[in-house]
Amino acid sequence: xxxxxxxxxxxxxxxxxxxxxxxxxxxxxxxxxxxxxxxxxxxxxxxxxxxxxxxxxxxxxxxxxxxxxxxxxxxxxxxxxxxxxxxxxxxxxxxxxxxxxxxxxxxxxxxxxxxxxxxxxxxxxxxxxxxxxxxxxxxxxxxxxxxxxxxxxxxxxxxxxxxxxxxxxxxxxxxxxxxxxxxxxxxxxxxxxxxxxxxxxxxxxxxxxxxxxxxxxxxxxxxxxxxxxxxxxxxxxxxxxxxxxxxxxxxxxxxxxxxxxxxxxxxxxxxxxxxxxxxxxxxxxxxxxxxxxxxxxxxxxxxxxxxxxxxxxxxxxxxxxxxxxxxxxxxxxxxxxxxxxxxxxxxxxxxxxxxxxxxxxxxxxxxxxxxxxxxxxxxxxxxxxxxxxxxxxxx
Length: 395
What we know:
- The chain has helices spanning 17-23, 39-59, 72-87, 102-113, 131-137, 160-169, 230-233, 241-279, 306-315, 335-339, 344-347, 361-380, 383-394, and strands at 5-6, 66-69, 93-97, 117-121, 142-146, 173-177, 196-200, 211-215, 283-285, 296-301, 318-319, 350-354.
- By secondary structure, it is an alpha/beta fold.
- The longest helix is centred in the middle third of the chain and has 39 residues, at 241-279.
- It is globular, with a radius of gyration of 22 Å.
């Protein structure tokens, strides 16, 4: 059996050992309900409070501005729907981008059916939001701008600080989906004028099923789940104490290793990009070459079908993806790749490789060799590639 090479850390990460260790007692001897008044419950409540304070400190926020959720998608839904409902007396217009995660795009589509107007601004060929287009989209009735911090498919980093400044200048709320960025990059909500921020635990070596929404103090957002007083009466339901503890431990760990991890991953990322570009003809790097997540590599290979590429990589023990894990069952090309200008046939041949802290140069060397061999094999079966090569020789 071939050794496993895991390069799909944008989809999910392995829960770190110290995170699991921190969580375990809250499944067994420290199992109390945080809402209970006896000491067993108080112990759980204290653990939740500690995790909230750790996460708040990581963003330059206050502890009472952090609300725990079941993950990033819930946090996105809460931020956008609640802001729309709370501020619709000021206007019913929302701005987002064409390359957002579907948790944002589908929520905006839902609100359009409820009578809200949504503008989906363009991005450039590297996937960066066009600031002039963003400013031009602002109307007197605009109440919310929702632009992701970093793209989950092509890794491009958005000019978040500039977007926040623009939103503040016009008195508009600014939400950012930071699911891919939180724990990988330093984030300061005040410096970036962020009013709401979504994050998820399993993207930073924490557990699945837990995330949070940062809500700046003073925003009058409604409760998202009714039925109890948890999360300061904004999200009812008994707290997922083990998950919250794990998220807090993962956040603390991510901050401690962030600088060293980013430097290592950036070096390996650039090495992988250089080798693929040099050794595989007719390929294209997707996303900005420098303004991208430290661990993200996304290529399109002409005359190759992405799903076949993934299956053959899996047979070699390599875990990768063609884009968002949330749409991996879809046969449609990535909306992100279409938005940056790729034609359907090239967008279909995309491969996303996202590194982790355990990734080694030796693993990437093997991946390059397997990709080269697999791309050659798939192109050999393509009559379009045969015609293309013949035309190239005739020129």
